[in-house]
Amino acid sequence: MNDLKIFLKNKKILITGHTGFKGSWLAQMLIYCGADAVGISLEPKIDPNLFGLLDLQKRMRGYFCDIRNFKKIKEIIAFEKPEIIFHLAAQPLVRDSYDDPLYTFETNIIGTANILQAAKDLGDVKAIVAITTDKVYEEKIGCFYEENDKLGGYDPYSASKAGAEMVINSYINSFFNPEFYGKKHHTLAASARAGNVFGGGDWLSRIFPDIVRSIFEKKEKLIIRNPDSIRPWQHVFDPLYGYLLLAKELYDGKREFSGAWNFGPDAKSYLTVENLVKQTFDIFKRGAYDINQDFVKREAGCLKLNSNKARRLLGWHPVYDIGDSVRIACEWYEAFYRGNDIKQITDCQIDLFFNKITKI
Ligand SMILES: NC(=O)c1ccc[n+]([C@@H]2O[C@H](COP(=O)([O-])OP(=O)(O)OC[C@H]3O[C@@H](n4cnc5c(N)ncnc54)[C@H](O)[C@@H]3O)[C@@H](O)[C@H]2O)c1
Fold first, then answer.
1. What is the pLDDT, as a whole number, of residue 76?
2. In which region does residue 315 sit, left (phi positive, over 0), alpha (psi from -120 to 50) or beta (all else)?
3. Roughly what angle, to the nearest 10 degrees, separates helices 21-32 and 237-251?
């Protein structure tokens, strides 16, 4: 058994956003490791969804509660008394943030403050990993971002996540300050900034699910809006692995792990959107697309993450390169659309991943 599995076994862990794409994978991983997982989220809004396919509602405790509702969030956290919190709940889409900026700001900024405040009020949480994004940085030439680079955010989603970072940083300074750890408080907190994540079980309006839908649901040809945008593409397992390692260090009281962390892919995984599409079509051996550029809902042209800090201090590095990542995600969707046992393939993929990290 590897260290992470031993560490996670029987730990009481709260995931906010456990009904979402990344949250469902994280929940399944925690269950696989024998953790006592509990979730807070909204009900899934799309069908199919990974949360439903994995039957997570029956396999872990969960609360359908809006993270903007501080009173209820505080009650749940006070009742559940988690030792570790992974905060993923958010409005996660740039395009939706243009349609509803206020909801995006409330959920992503105030929602984050509510979770941190409820944890502070409880006083017993040992580790908090709050998930933001690679989009928190003010855009700069070269677009290769380190943790200490200036925060920014052009569109409401990116700005809301930069806002969440300010909130997290303020809670770290004011209430979870590593300097006073063990004297004035018992909580260490960090933020995690990963790239564009894909993997089986995502059906949101994002490029990878769009590719999959264009192939298997054949309703319409794939439309690419930002063909030349360069993104840090990652299989969902890689950032989740980083979050777990980070939580372990915080839980173990290692003060130097408090703060912000980038978790980006290796250098070869920075593809343009169009190249990702071509590579995925190659694996499925079919697919066609049209380009229809969107100049209204602007998105950053290029995003690259410097993850040297995570590599050096956490010993984290991406396990899957872009080829593996696309192949593994494609295998999951193939299995789903063929009607195979999706719980089995999901656990099989998690098992393979944990075997790989044991050997690192
Ligand atoms: N998927 C990516 O490529 C990516 C990249 C960088 C960062 N992230 C971040 O990772 C996290 C998870 O993203 P995802 O892709 O799984 O998104 P998702 O939409 O699949 O999941 C979002 C989750 O948040 C919950 N949620 C949303 N609004 C809420 C509210 N007001 N109250 C309570 N719960 C609420 C949803 O119910 C869901 O469980 C987000 O914080 C997102 O910003 C995702």
1. 98
2. left
3. 60
| pLDDT, tens digit (0-9, with 9 covering 90-100), for 150-207 | 999 999 999 999 999 999 999 999 999 999 999 999 999 999 999 899 999 999 989 9
**207 is a domain residue:** no
DSSP string, 134-151: GGGBPP-TT-EE-TTSPB
Q: Which H helix or E strand runs over 73?
A: helix 70-80
The answer to whether position 336 is within a domain reads no
**If 0-12 CB within 10 Å is exposed, 13-18 middle and 19+ buried, where does residue 11 land?**
buried
Which domain does 90 fall in, by range? 3-199+233-265+300-322
CATH classification at residue 134: 3.40.50.720
Closest CA to 211 of 157, 271, 154: 271
Q: What is the pLDDT of residues 73-123, one digit of tens each?
A: 999 999 999 999 999 999 999 999 999 999 999 999 999 999 999 999 999
- Name the closest-CA residue to atom 23, ligand 1: 17
| Residue 170, C-beta contacts closer than 8 angstroms, at least 6 positions apart | none
> Domain for residue 128, yes or no?
yes
pLDDT at 70 over 90: yes
- The tally of domains found in the chain comes to 1
- For ligand 1, the distance from its centroid to the CA atom of residue 211, given in whole angstroms, is 20
- Residues 6+ positions from 225 with CB-CB distance below 8 Å: 292, 293, 294
Q: What percent of the chain stands above pLDDT 90?
A: 89
Nearest to 144 by CA among 267, 246, 227: 267
What's the CA-to-centroid distance between 92 and ligand 1, angstroms? 5
Ligand 1 centroid – CA 89 distance (Å): 5
Work out the burial of residue 174: count CB atoms within 10 Å of its CB; fewer than 13 is exposed, 13-18 middle, 19 or more buried: exposed
Ligand 1 center to 17 CA (angstroms): 6
Residue with CA at minimum distance from ligand 1 atom 31: 66
Structural domain includes residue 15: yes
Q: Residue 125: what pLDDT?
A: 98
Residue pLDDT, tens place only, 246-294: 999 999 999 999 999 999 999 999 999 999 999 999 999 999 899 987 7
